[in-house]
Specification:
alpha+beta; Phosphorylase Kinase, domain 1; globular
Length: about 230
């Protein structure tokens, strides 16, 4: 079985640097290859690995390179590129972003989301903690909560996401879609500009109007797709 083989190889050939995240669903670990010294990220969690499987063949500047994916008895194991840079959440602790900086980062995240959405998948956890700034490039990470959209389903099988960033439909009211990620990106843009959720303090000017459209309660009133959103971000 690939799952057993992968976990066995990782135990023998890699050292654990640190646990990056751990919760009831699973764990994310930073590993170091014993011979090369190269670092990688290892995910092991309960759930579905279909999105990671789709990303195996994808190369995109705004997404980490997925190297191996294995599943067994409801568990998923993923080995991926370690994206070295500064988490957006850490940078926000120091200062807010300018409108120009926010637009540049938002456009890059839209480009990454376009690739993901083109695969029929939704990220479902767009937030500052899941965006790494690698030089001038924003990289969207962590697809543990992601899912493939199923046209025959009226709602998500599993309710996941981050309070404040997850749209209403993500709490079991309907199935998540590309518009769900657009909602979360709108919230993130507002936090970058104001430090607040748009329901508390909406950014001013043109970007405020963009964010307001992103975060409409009804998915149908948001941008149809991230390409339309990119056109409006300036």
């Amino acid at each position: 079985m690939l799952y057993d083989y992968l976990t066995s190889v990782l135990e023998k050939e890699y050292n654990t640097v640190r646990v990056m995240k751990e919760n009831e669903r699973g764990v994310v670990i930073l590993l170091c290859h014993k011979q090369s010294g190269q670092r990688f990220v290892f995910h092991r969690y309960k759930g579905n690995g279909d999105v990671y499987q789709k990303l195996l063949e994808i190369s995109c500047p705004g997404l980490p390179q997925i190297l191996e994916v294995a599943q067994k008895d409801g568990m998923v194991a993923v080995l991926e590129e370690y994206v070295q840079g500064d988490p957006l959440s850490l940078l926000l602790e120091a200062d807010l972003f300018t409108a120009e900086q926010t637009c540049r980062i938002a456009r890059q995240i839209c480009q990454a989301l376009w690739v993901l959405h083109s695969l029929g998948a939704v990220h479902r956890d767009v937030k500052p903690e899941n965006v790494i700034l690698r030089g001038d490039q924003a990289v969207l990470i962590d697809f543990d909560a992601s899912r493939v959209v199923k046209s025959d389903k009226k709602e998500d099988t599993q309710v996941l996401g981050t309070t404040g960033y997850a749209p209403p439909e993500q709490y079991g009211m309907a199935q998540t879609s590309a518009q769900s990620d657009i909602y979360a990106l709108g919230v993130m843009m507002n936090v970058m500009l104001t430090g607040e959720h748009p329901s508390q303090k909406l950014a001013s000017g043109h970007l405020g109007r963009v964010i307001q459209r992103c975060t409409q309660i009804s998915p149908g009133r948001r941008y149809k797709n991230v390409l339309r959103l990119i056109e409006d971000i300036r």
